[in-house]
Design brief:
Layout lengths: L2 H8 L3 H4 L4 H10 L5 E5 L12 E5 L3 H5 L7 E3 L13 E7 L8 H11 E9 L4 H6 L1 H6 L3 H5 L5 H8 L2 E4 L2 E2 L20 H5 L2 H6 L1 H17 L1 H5 L8 E2 L3 E5 L1
Parallel strand pairs: 1-2, 1-4, 2-3, 4-5
Antiparallel strand pairs: 5-9, 6-9, 7-8
Helix pairs in contact: 5-9
The structure holds S-adenosylmethionine.
The site of S-adenosylmethionine has 24 residues, from helix 1.
């Protein structure tokens, strides 16, 4: 199943927990500089589209396109790997939390570079085992994430493909956008079906791994084992979990 098809099946409740996190949006919008025309690739429901600029969105999933707010930017049905635009059509192109879904991330990033003068991408370094170990959810409950990212291009390779530099993005403890890592200091959230349904990782690991991870986390929260293992997190307001901005 392609990722667009995946979102046509799992995207129905996306907006229940997925929305703009203002502190991360501010980083993305600052990195766009003074770009007036902006292409948002893998735009979904439009969470991170910058106000006050001329935005065009690209989104392959019909279900995601249908959930865009009335008055949201014009949205084209297409994929990152084949952007239907002339060279240098936009001042900037951005992509938020979508590159890991692309069939060919390098081709998609090169397409962004072709059609825009500046490229800003928010993504994660999950091909890196060190990053996966840093997050208790993948380390202790969902090691299957390693299989999902096996063979995917490393972050450094993605950055090299478009001549980007990378900037770490720390995730605030009360992150408003419910992506996979968002609840690192609120572990009970992962027991909630709504939280898991809006994150593709859970669909992709399959129901057996999902149920085992949830059961095991619930037990560890009840017994105090989670708190014991992760006591250092309580004092943190933001965590380094491998999320990055690529800026070219
Ligand atoms: C996690 S959602 C992120 C949506 C939005 N950027 C946001 O931050 O809310 C990932 C999106 O990438 C889209 N997608 C999947 N494959 C894609 C591709 N090859 N090119 C562009 N977008 C793709 C999905 O349909 C989905 O809407």
């Amino acid at each position: 199943m392609s990722s667009a098809q995946l979102y046509d099946s799992i995207g129905a409740s996306y907006t229940v927990t997925r929305r703009t996190e203002p502190r991360i949006a501010a980083r993305v919008w600052a990195a766009l500089g003074d770009a007036r025309t902006v292409l948002n690739v893998g735009a979904g429901t439009g969470s991170y589209e910058p106000p006050g600029r001329d935005v065009t969105a690209v989104e392959p999933s019909a279900l995601m396109r249908a959930q865009r707010a009335a008055g949201a930017a014009r949205c084209v049905a297409a994929v990152a790997e084949r952007l239907p635009f002339e060279d240098e059509s936009f001042d900037a192109a951005m992509a938020f939390s979508t590159v890991h879904h692309w069939q060919d991330p390098i081709a998609g990033l090169r397409e962004m570079k072709r059609v825009a003068l500046r490229v800003v991408v928010f993504t994660h370094a999950s091909s890196d085992a060190g990053c996966r170990r840093r997050f208790w959810l993948t380390r202790d409950y969902l090691p299957e994430v390693a299989d999902l990212v096996a063979g995917r291009p490393w972050l450094a390779e993605q950055a090299r493909a478009i001549g980007a530099h990378t900037e770490p993005v720390l995730i605030p403890w009360d992150c408003a956008d419910g992506f996979f890592e968002a609840y690192w200091r609120r572990p009970e959230a992962y027991l909630d079906d709504h939280v898991r349904r809006a994150v593709s990782v859970w669909a992709r690991v399959g129901p057996d791994a999902e149920q085992r991870a949830v059961r095991s986390l619930r037990d560890d929260l009840a017994s105090g084992r989670w708190a014991e293992r992760n006591r250092d997190l309580v004092a943190l307001d933001a965590a380094e979990l491998g999320l990055r901005l690529l800026v070219a």
